[in-house]
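Lab notebook, bench 4. We co-purified these components, and the gel suggests they stay together. Before we commit to crystallization screens, I want a quick structural picture of the whole thing.
Request: model the full complex, all chains together.
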Amino acid sequence: MDGKRMRDNSQIEKGPTEDERGSSTMRTAETLLRILPMALCVVALVIMLKDSQTNEFGSLYYSDIGAFRYLVHASGICAGYSLLSAIAAAIPKQLTMSRAWTFFVLDQLLTYIILAAGAISTEVVYLAYKGDATITWSQTCGSFGGFCRRATASIAITFIVTLCYAGLTLISSYRLFSKYDAPVAYTNRGVEITTFHS
Amino acid sequence: MDGKRMRDNSQIEKGPTEDERGSSTMRTAETLLRILPMALCVVALVIMLKDSQTNEFGSLYYSDIGAFRYLVHASGICAGYSLLSAIAAAIPKQLTMSRAWTFFVLDQLLTYIILAAGAISTEVVYLAYKGDATITWSQTCGSFGGFCRRATASIAITFIVTLCYAGLTLISSYRLFSKYDAPVAYTNRGVEITTFHS
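Here is the predicted assembly.
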């Protein structure tokens, strides 16, 4: 009962209940949106790590292709960061400016890293399927169909991770920049403002 | 004289001069940061479009490689968007919520498009230089050195454009989200707030 009263008092001091509840919902959503890419990254990583094929044409391992090695590293980094940031996001504590900036910068960076990994692996798989006659690159997937299909699955998951990260970028941008005041000439609160420029 | 007095009056109504000046500086910076990638995109586009080499091994055009065709399209789209958005950013008018969202979403999208173009073209040039013995892809740059060098130059410029866009993303995020109020549990203004969670 005492705890309840304390809570009520604190709400009077700090604002309406809806906002607090909205913030708590947002934190839960953010934590889930960070756990999801972690799980997906691990799946993409495992599929790619196990991707090898041996037949009458020879053996092919994921590590024979630079883009796939990069994808494995990027997925690993992304899974690690997602776990750490999910823990950090789940802990209810005051978000300082430096914490908000760290989240923002790292989320952006990881989005770029994982997008690049997906993009270059897609290009390699595309070339492996289609080949390129002019520069005499063979259609490797003709001989290693299973290898290419597993690689494609891993890449598809990587793109889902990229979408999750694009969403997280939105959240961390909101977290960071809603702490700043709007620039005066662009403010949209209250009455319309006419600006005069010399 | 009358115009000057009007300007002074308007400042009293809407806030301190520093903020207005800061906002105007920001608009100039944004406009320049939008014109720069436009120029760079055009340069990258022209270098890539003119990239062809004919020698005793045969002829090689940029259009023989899917990744380079994508880079040309991406640079074209990016140049067009940069021009339009520079004009839109230069015009001093009230930034509505929908305008801020449009800038934010398009800046993010273009960043991803141009980053992907740079990444996949880098992968192709890397493969063309190094080859891949396991999947029997030849070192094309051994025969077409000039072609590869021009392609590399175009890609390098594309990455500078990506950096410009990363900066623009920062500005458009700030523009958009500084219009929102900070979530209550995360607010950093005024006294420290203790939250109670049930």
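Confidence is low (pLDDT under 50) at residues 1-16, 185-198 of chain A. Worth comparing against the SEC data before the next meeting. The beta strands of chain A are 52-55, 58-61.
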